[in-house]
Design a protein that fits this description.
Helix 7 packs across helix 10 and helix 8 crosses helix 9. A 6-stranded parallel β-sheet has the order 2-1-3-4-5-6, with helices on both faces. It has 2 domains: 136 residues, 3-Layer(aba) Sandwich (Rossmann fold); 59 residues, Arc Repressor Mutant, subunit A, CATH 1.10.10. The chain has 10 helices and 6 strands; from the N terminus they run E-H-E-H-E-H-E-H-E-H-E-H-H-H-H-H. Helices cover 50% and strands 13% of the residues. The chain is α/β, with parallel strands linked by helices and 221 residues long.
Length: 221
């Protein structure tokens, strides 16, 4: 008696990509796309409704952050495997997805054979990374074991702003403490949201506190 097909939900804001995945999966035995979602918020509801085995998740989507969706799905349905399929290959995005609970991380430009293999591997509960991501991870873990600075993609000024945000300070106070204009602080915060792939201030603060980010004043003690 054959096993039931692998049930897949595709989460991506680009309809053409979702359509392409559906077309590819239709050529693979024992796999079936049971639903699609255009953003992370919708994804959580779709997963509850369709009970998939595997979720393909983009990270950056209008109307719902992929990382938040991964955390929500894993916390409520830890048996569902999640494969990140995205164009973002920076270290922070990769490790954030892994910390959130994804089992694999591949890039959208991989060829169809490798993509099909990734679906099967993660659908079976194993981990997989595209070649480019695997190389970056090996390079990262080959570095000296001294504690790396959290969020290396942020500039020094952005680090300082995020650290003060994590202490609960508002924009006006941050501007005064760092001798910046309010507009400059707002620009830095926009950059922080984009680089950390978070949707709002509260998510950025959670990330900063989880990473143990210190403010300039903290470093003096």
């Amino acid at each position: 008696m054959s096993n039931p097909p692998l049930r897949i939900v595709v989460v991506d804001d680009h309809e053409l990509f979702r359509r392409g995945v559906r077309a590819l999966v239709s050529t693979i035995a024992d796999m079936d796309v049971v639903a699609e979602a255009p953003d992370g918020v919708t994804a959580c509801a779709v997963v509850e409704e369709h009970d998939p085995d595997l979720v393909l998740m983009d990270l950056q989507m209008p109307g719902g952050n992929g990382l938040e969706a991964i955390r929500s799905i894993v916390s409520r349905r830890p048996e569902i495997n999640i494969l990140v399929v995205t164009m973002y290959e920076d270290d922070e995005s990769v490790f954030a997805a892994m910390r959130a609970g994804a089992r694999g991380y591949v890039l959208k430009d991989m060829d169809s054979d490798d993509f099909a293999r990734a679906l099967q591997v993660v659908g079976d509960g194993e981990a997989i990374f595209s070649r480019a991501i695997a190389s970056r991870m090996m390079a990262f873990f080959a570095q000296p074991t001294s504690k790396p600075r959290p969020f290396p993609e942020l500039t020094e000024s952005e680090h300082a702003v995020l650290a003060l945000m994590s202490r609960g300070l508002n924009n006006a106070t941050i501007a005064r403490d760092l001798n910046l204009t309010p507009k400059t602080v707002r620009n830095y915060i926009s950059n922080i949201f984009r680089k950390l792939a978070v949707a709002d201030r509260s998510q950025a603060i959670v990330r900063a506190r989880e990473a143990g980010l210190q403010s300039p004043d903290d470093n003096k003690h």
